[in-house]
Amino acid sequence: MNPEPKTPADAVRDYVGFRQGINLDTKEAAMMARELAAYAAAAEDLRATLAPSDQPGNYRKALVMEGTSSDEGRP
Amino acid sequence: VNRTAEELLECSLVEQVSRLQDGELAVCDLVEAALARSERLQPVLNCFITLDREGALARARALDALPARQRRTMPLFGVPVAHKDLFAREGRIVTFASKLYAEHRASGTATVVKRFDDAGAVDIGTLNLTEFACGPYGLNILVGPTRNPWKLEHVAGGSSSGSAAALAARLVASSMGTDTGGSVRGPSSACGVFGLLPTNGRISRHGVLPLSHSLDNVGPLARSARDIARVLGVVAGKDANDATASSEPVPNYEAGISAGLRELRIGQPVNYYIEHVDGEIAAMVAETAKVLADLGATIVPLEVPDPRPLDALANILAVAEGSAYHRDDIRRHADLYTPAVRDRILFGFSIDAVSYIDALRLRGRELHRYMDAVFTKVDALLLPAMPRAAPSYAEVEAARSESSDLSFSFGKFTRSFNYLGLPALAVPHRLNTLGLPIAFQLVGRPFGEALILRIAYGFEQVVPPRFPAFPSLAEPAVPEIA
Fold this sequence. Notes:
By secondary structure, chain A is mostly helical. Chain A has helices spanning 8-21, 27-48, 58-67. Chain A starts with 7 loop residues before the first helix and ends in an 8-residue tail after the last helix. The two termini of chain B are 35 Å apart.
């Protein structure tokens, strides 16, 4: 077990060390990377059309508004 | 052995409740039968992480002492249930199928567990799963994986593997699982039971270990559409302990379930879902469409948006959020993680923040687009649940050795609906030529669970799952799993 970092600077150094030590040369990581890469172009097409009005908070609203008309006008 | 109790274990949840409420059988007798069967099959199937004989029988005795009037107010009166070991119950050990939490005692109770209790269910134990609900095959180094009751050398799906297998083996009447990319629908399909991914926010997640807070949903598994409707009515709805639980009113899901399919338009995709699927499963979906048409529905062939970019966006969210959640544990105790789970979680640290935020920003807009493209034309979609039947553990191991894409292909028809937040129900159909269950999937509008349950119920009345008598598993040869 790693010792607990004592100061914020220690915490940053500890975390950076952890990130640098991550082994992505694994079978599971290779599968996931290939999956993401295979669809990356299609996902990139969507990302290229993002507008400033597309914000994370819109999702919950969209879900309710698409689900029922009874929600129209709900505060 | 109480034969009546043994026979009742084979019945649906709704029938079990009805006969227990009528006093035809004592709750104690049914629970004893469920415990005995679970204990007998545990060395074979490995469904449970813990079995709580003492607690279950004490609860059963308390229920038997209730007056008839009170029994009838409890929609899950007396039925044996168990949930994925991801749901907390105060004072009980909840392991998440992790060595790291093998002795972890919960400090509170999950909202859905409490709602099951209030409805009269008897919780008989905790069910096996993929470690931390991360992966489709039930792998964990704590107790080992669950075996598929229909073919023991095959996976039971995942991550809610114990839930689906316990239902298929008639050990419990219902179980709650979680679904982040297919973790209820996948095992349901693999084991031949019903499993629902509800609309995002339909069911409280309070007291359930998260994997991806954007995509996680709690969902019920059961052996009939009406059973799912009953359970959904019990657990759905707002929760003061979970701000993400929707305040949408909860309808009576059973009330209109037998209304039939006339005037319904059911979309059948002419792209993607027919291009990447096993031949037997494609034929099963085509047969299903014909049955639904015979029942009065209009089948509408249509092109649906390609789910692959949505899959990619969902994966970005899932792995990044999973890594964020596990950051401290995996940093300190990586050696206590199941290797396949550890490597998945570590991969999430390679996702950049801009990609993650874009995936969140696109979600609302893509839901609007999907609704315009699909649900202005049809009321529900009919798809295969999985592209193939459950693989064997040997196939899974071979794929992992070769770093092939088996694990991803198993969930490629399910994950996009977690991203969109749409309800989707896995419906068992029959066994394939290898003797493994195959299933289709019905997808609905947001908060449209009642309608897809109605379609599934209509189908089930004319084509109940065509499975042979369940194997006795009396003296099974238990294959070794590497």
